[in-house]
């Protein structure tokens, strides 16, 4: 009986300590409250909660997510596009960042930069152009597709090399077809040039290989286009 009482006392003490620990985590409380507000699309109120977390708890394990979702809240508020873009960029620079959220942040930077460019703030074009050189294929491809919608065809043409690469190397028919449509949107001649390049690369070739009886590798080899072989 005494053993049972001791065990119950330990369990009650553990529960009390756990409850006290939970109650002393204001950063988590702020984050969870902000997420509920985000779910309800109450962007400004959620932003306020997240800013409080960021300012008061810079060492919190929720800090990096708070930065990302602050950017999301700003993005959803008219007139806050520039600020949202900068906060997304600051998230991308954080060491403690999620790979998935970082990719989403990169895509949002492209969308916001496009909106700002279309609103007459031409300097934001550079934000999209930089993404054409991203090591992340999703980001790189998205930047090229977005750039293809710009009305100034000289500007849109900067996406052509990446669009050609997508049309040639894309992982499935759908994305390759999207790249061809984007090329057509930018400049019909760009698509024509691409098709000509592809047809030239598919020229039939006669492969000549000469082997010695006792050798595995050829001692002589030559590739001759069939047009010349005739």
Commentary on this structure:
- This is Outer membrane lipoprotein BamD-like domain-containing protein.
- With 230 residues, the chain is mostly helical.
- The model is unreliable at 11-15 (pLDDT under 50).
- It contains 13 helices and 2 strands.
- The protein has one domain: Alpha Horseshoe (Serine Threonine Protein Phosphatase 5, Tetratricopeptide repeat).
- α4 runs antiparallel to α5 (81-92).
Give a short synopsis of this structure.
The chain has 230 residues and is mostly helical.
What structural keywords apply?
single chain, 230 residues, mainly alpha, Serine Threonine Protein Phosphatase 5, Tetratricopeptide repeat, TPR_rpt
Give me the number of helical elements.
13
CATH H level: which superfamily? Tetratricopeptide repeat domain
Ranges where pLDDT stays below 50 over 5 or more residues in a row are 11-15
Shape: elongated
Percentage of residues assigned to helices:
55-70%
Biggest beta-sheet profile: 2 strands, antiparallel
Strand and helix order? HHHHHHHHHHHHEEH
Q: Total strand count, please?
A: 2
Q: What is the strand arrangement across the widest sheet?
A: 1-2
* CATH architectural designation: Alpha Horseshoe
Count of discrete domains: 1
Mean pLDDT: 83
Query: For the record, what CATH class applies?
Result: Mainly Alpha
Spatial extent as radius of gyration: 29 Å
- CATH topology category name: Serine Threonine Protein Phosphatase 5, Tetratricopeptide repeat
* Proportion of beta-strand residues: 5-15%
Q: How many angstroms does the end-to-end distance come to?
A: 102 Å
Question: Helix- and strand-based class?
Answer: mainly alpha
């Amino acid at each position: 009986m005494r053993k049972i009482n001791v065990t119950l006392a330990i369990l009650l003490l553990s529960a009390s300590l756990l409850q006290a620990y939970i109650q002393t985590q204001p950063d988590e409380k702020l984050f969870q409250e902000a997420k509920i507000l985000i779910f309800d699309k109450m962007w400004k109120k959620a932003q306020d909660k997240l800013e409080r977390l960021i300012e008061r708890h810079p060492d919190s394990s929720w800090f990096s997510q708070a930065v990302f979702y602050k950017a999301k809240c700003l993005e959803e508020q008219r007139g806050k596009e520039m600020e949202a873009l900068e906060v997304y960029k600051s998230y991308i620079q954080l060491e403690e960042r999620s790979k998935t959220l970082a990719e989403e942040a990169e895509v949002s930077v492209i969308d916001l930069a496009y909106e700002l460019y279309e609103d007459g703030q031409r300097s934001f074009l550079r934000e999209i152009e930089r993404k054409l050189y991203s090591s992340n294929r999703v980001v790189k491809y998205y930047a090229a597709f977005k750039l293809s919608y710009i009305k100034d065809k000289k500007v849109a043409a900067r996406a052509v090399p990446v669009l050609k690469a997508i049309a040639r190397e894309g992982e499935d028919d759908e994305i390759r077809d999207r790249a061809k449509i984007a090329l057509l949107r930018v400049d019909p001649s760009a698509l024509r040039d691409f098709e000509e390049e592809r047809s030239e690369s598919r020229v039939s070739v006669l492969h000549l290989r000469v082997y010695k009886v006792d050798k595995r590798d050829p001692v002589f080899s030559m590739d001759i286009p069939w047009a010349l072989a005739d």
